[in-house]
């Protein structure tokens, strides 16, 4: 199960302003590179993409509100297969379409 910390750090999902929910660490980029990359793509934070994956794993977090109930366990931890899926930024292709209107 993935570790969490209470909200002492900002959430790294682009546009998230939550300041109170628990935070979850990114998946280990060496043990699960596909899932790490999926999280990185979903949070849509360009700053993280330019950072060393080990630094992102050690120092960056995503808040609890971005995970479905079935991704969570009873003690605030996440299932090993969890990926953020709620309250995420719009994909770039949709932002570009909406910006042109």
From TrEMBL:
Residues 3-87 form the THAP-type domain. SMART domains: THAP. One of its GO terms (molecular function) is DNA binding. The keyword Ribonucleoprotein does not apply. The keyword Plastid does not apply. Keywords: DNA-binding, Metal-binding, Zinc, Zinc-finger. InterPro entries: THAP_Znf (IPR006612). PROSITE patterns: ZF_THAP. Pfam families: THAP. This is THAP domain.
């Amino acid at each position: 199960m993935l570790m969490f910390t209470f909200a002492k750090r900002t959430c790294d999902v682009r546009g998230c302003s939550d300041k109170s929910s628990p935070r979850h660490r990114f998946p280990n980029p060496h043990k699960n590179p596909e899932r790490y990359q999926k999280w990185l793509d979903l949070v849509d934070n360009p700053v993280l993409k330019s950072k060393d994956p080990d630094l992102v794993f050690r120092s960056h977090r995503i808040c609890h509100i971005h995970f479905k109930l079935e991704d969570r366990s009873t003690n605030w931890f996440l299932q090993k297969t969890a990926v953020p899926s709620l309250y995420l930024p719009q994909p770039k292709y949709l932002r570009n379409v909406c910006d042109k209107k």
